[in-house]
Specification:
The protein has 284 residues and is an alpha+beta fold. It contains 5 helices and 17 strands. The structure holds zinc ion (ZN).
Length: 284
């Protein structure tokens, strides 16, 4: 197990919000009205294998504990669950346009949510899939996306950006995107089904031609029909293709740091979900 970094200069830092450890990103902290946090697995009440701040309702954990964990997470941001909006994630590229009318609700099925309404806190749950936080400080609009390999094949990150541009009036160039803690290429061995699906979307880049651990490549270390896939790089490229002005990659691997984050892969499917929340505070 690697020591989890507490700070990467200019990228993220570890803080305590309420009584909960969180990660926050420097590039999302310049706007004083924007609240955001990537929670960890620490500070909740769930028992193993969901210990302890599990936010997933569908992983087999005690619902009472999950509810108490949600209360802690929102309390740490100084908000209430009635201000949060979430969705049923299905590994799609469906984007939900969320408004103040959705507060306290499950907005529907989808893998990205976008809003320009203050006082609405987008909330999603992760355990290896890639969280993508989107922020347009000019339009004061935000987005949050969930990209596993299926969502990446469908370009959910690009779909979320296009929704902010087309439905909220954002300029893609003004948007900062943060690729949060999720499984890294170091730990993400994939088989032929995933390789073929990714090669169809990124035809220039084949696992066959991959060089071991070369930065900026989608695949590495192919042997015996397997490859290691870099979902951070794939999503970075899709965000840039969608015109996003700045893409920040946390570089925090959930499987390497399963002491801090839930990792579906590292824990063989028996684990919880950590939360990512962002929203504009309502101004008095
Ligand atoms: Zn790793």
């Amino acid at each position: 197990m690697l020591t989890t970094p507490f700070r990467k200069k200019g990228v993220f830092r570890h803080e305590v919000a309420g009584r909960l450890p969180v990660y926050r990103f420097d590039q999302l902290s310049n706007d004083p009205h924007l609240a955001h946090a990537v929670f960890t697995r620490l500070g909740g009440i769930s028992r193993p294998p969901f210990a302890s701040l599990n936010l997933g309702h569908t992983v087999g954990d005690d619902p009472t504990a999950v509810q108490a964990n949600h209360t802690r997470v929102y309390g740490a941001l100084g908000i209430h669950g009635s201000q949060a909006v979430t969705c049923h994630m299905t590994h799609s590229a469906d984007v939900l346009l969320v408004t103040a009318a959705n507060k306290g609700q499950v907005a529907g099925q989808g893998d990205a949510m976008v809003t320009a309404d203050a006082g609405v806190y987008l909330s999603m749950r992760f355990a290896d899939c890639v969280p993508i936080l989107l922020h347009d400080p000019q339009r004061k609009a935000i987005g949050l996306a969930h990209a596993g390999w299926r969502g990446t094949v469908k370009d959910v990150a690009g779909a979320a950006v296009r929704s902010m541009v087309n439905q909220l009036g954002c300029s893609a160039q003004a948007i900062t995107a943060v690729i949060g803690p999720s499984i890294g290429r170091c730990c993400y061995q994939v088989g032929q089904d995933v390789i073929q699906a990714m090669e169809a979307v990124f035809p220039q880049e084949t696992a066959q031609a991959a060089v071991e651990d070369q930065d900026g490549r989608l695949f590495s270390r192919r042997n015996g029909g397997y490859a290691y896939l870099d979902l951070w790089e794939a999503n970075r490229r899709q965000l840039e293709a969608a015109g996003v002005g700045r893409v920040i990659v946390a570089g925090l691997c959930t499987a390497c740091h399963a002491d801090f984050f839930f990792s579906h892969r590292a824990e063989r499917g028996r684990t919880g979900r950590f939360g990512v929340v962002l929203g504009y505070r309502e101004q008095a």
